[in-house]
C-alpha cells in the first residue's frame, strides 16, 4: 500500500548537511497527520521517535517490538512530536485516546453494518499492523492495568489473535508509541486525577523518554512564529510570566502546582489580542485572558498569585 521514500529532514532539525530518514511517498490517507507549518522540532525528542521508527521498519519478524513511552506534563509536546514528524514523512498514525473505561479490544475489532447486517471489522490497531504504520495511545496511564496484557502480546510477538481466530502479524513499519502524564508508577502530585499505577511489565518493554517543556529561546521562537507582529516588549513580558509560573511550580511556591503550557500561552496571546477593547474598561487584556486560559484552572490561592504576577508584569490597566 505504501511506497518507501527517503526524506531529508535537515530543515526541521536545523542541520547544515542532509539528515535522511525513511518514510513513505506522498499518499492520501485519512490518518495522515496535518502539518503544522510553525511547529518547532526538538532534537532531543526527535532522536527516540526516529529510533523507534527505524526499528519498526527494519525489525526481524522474530524480534519483539520495542515501543516508546513519552512521559511529561500536559502541553509539553508528547503527542505533537510524534504526529508532526510522521506528517513530514508521509506516514499515517492511528491516534487512540485512552480513558479509564477504555477496552483496548476496541482497537482490535469494531462492529460495522453492511447490507443491513452486523459485521466485525478490524479495529485501528489491527489496521495499523496490517498497513505497517504507527499507533499512538495517549493517556496510557489511565488504563486498567489488566489492559496491558494485550499490549504485551503485541510488543513481544509482533502479532495478535483476533476474536474470530485469525492471527495478524505486524508489517514492517508498525510501531507502538504511548504518552502519559506519569511514567506509569502513579501520580504523586495530585495533578492528574484518574491516572493509575501500571504494571512494570509495560515499561520493561519500551523506551521511556521524559518530555519537559522546551527551553525559553525555542519557546520564544514558537510564539514569534504564531504571532509575527507581536510587539517585542509584550512578548518579553509573556516570557516572564511563563517562566515565573514554571519556576513556582518547580519550587512548590504560591500554591502553583503546574506551569503555563505552550498551548495555553498561544491561546492566551490570541485571546488578549482579540480582546483589546477591555482597555476601555480599565482592564489589561493580557491579565484578564491569562485568567481564562490558565489561572482559573488552578486552586483559589494560586489564582490570586497568578493575577498578582500578571499585574506586576503587565500592569492593572493597559500595558
Automatic annotation (TrEMBL):
It holds the Pfam family AAA_5. GO terms for cellular component: preribosome, large subunit precursor. Keywords: ATP-binding, Nucleotide-binding, Plasmid. InterPro entries: ATPase_dyneun-rel_AAA (IPR011704), P-loop_NTPase (IPR027417). The keyword Transmembrane helix does not apply. One of its GO terms (biological process) is ribosomal large subunit assembly. GO terms for molecular function: ATP binding; ATP hydrolysis activity. Residues 68-187 form the ATPase dynein-related AAA domain. The keyword Repressor does not apply. It comes from the Bacteria. PANTHER family: MIDASIN (PTHR48103:SF2), MIDASIN-RELATED (PTHR48103). This is ATPase dynein-related AAA domain-containing protein. The lineage of its organism: Bacteria, Pseudomonadati, Pseudomonadota, Gammaproteobacteria, Lysobacterales.
Amino acid at each position: 500500500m505504501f511506497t518507501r521514500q527517503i526524506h531529508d529532514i535537515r530543515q526541521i532539525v536545523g542541520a547544515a548537511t542532509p539528515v535522511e530518514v525513511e518514510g513513505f511517498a506522498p499518499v492520501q490517507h485519512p490518518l495522515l497527520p496535518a502539518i503544522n507549518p510553525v511547529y518547532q522540532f526538538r532534537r532531543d525528542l526527535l532522536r527516540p521517535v526516529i529510533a523507534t521508527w527505524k526499528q519498526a521498519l527494519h525489525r526481524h519478524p522474530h524480534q519483539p517490538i520495542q515501543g516508546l513511552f513519552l512521559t511529561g506534563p500536559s502541553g509539553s509536546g508528547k503527542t505533537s512530536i510524534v504526529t508532526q514528524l510522521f506528517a513530514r514523512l508521509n506516514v499515517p498514525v492511528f491516534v487512540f485516546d485512552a480513558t479509564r473505561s477504555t477496552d483496548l479490544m476496541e482497537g482490535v475489532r469494531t462492529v460495522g453494518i453492511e447490507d443491513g447486517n452486523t459485521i466485525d471489522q478490524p479495529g485501528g490497531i489491527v489496521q495499523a499492523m496490517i498497513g505497517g504504520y504507527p499507533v499512538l495511545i495517549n493517556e496510557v496511564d489511565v488504563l486498567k492495568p489488566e489492559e496491558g496484557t494485550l499490549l504485551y502480546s503485541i510488543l513481544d510477538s509482533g502479532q495478535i489473535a483476533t476474536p474470530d481466530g485469525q492471527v495478524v502479524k505486524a508489517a514492517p513499519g508498525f510501531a507502538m508509541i504511548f504518552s502519559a502524564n506519569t511514567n506509569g508508577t502513579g501520580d504523586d502530585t495530585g495533578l492528574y486525577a484518574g491516572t493509575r499505577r501500571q504494571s512494570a511489565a509495560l515499561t520493561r518493554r519500551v523506551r521511556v523518554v521524559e518530555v519537559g517543556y522546551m527551553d525559553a529561546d525555542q519557546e520564544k521562537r514558537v510564539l514569534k512564529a504564531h504571532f509575527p507582529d507581536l510587539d517585542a516588549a509584550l512578548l518579553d513580558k509573556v516570557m516572564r510570566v511563563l517562566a515565573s509560573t514554571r519556576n513556582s511550580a518547580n519550587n512548590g511556591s504560591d500554591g502553583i502546582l503546574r506551569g503555563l503550557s505552550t498551548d495555553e500561552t498561544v491561546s492566551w496571546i490570541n485571546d488578549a489580542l482579540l480582546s483589546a477593547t477591555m482597555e476601555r474598561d480599565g482592564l489589561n487584556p493580557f491579565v484578564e485572558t491569562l485568567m481564562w486560559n490558565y489561572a482559573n484552572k488552578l486552586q483559589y490561592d494560586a489564582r490570586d498569585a497568578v493575577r498578582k504576577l500578571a499585574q506586576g508584569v503587565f500592569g492593572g490597566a493597559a500595558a
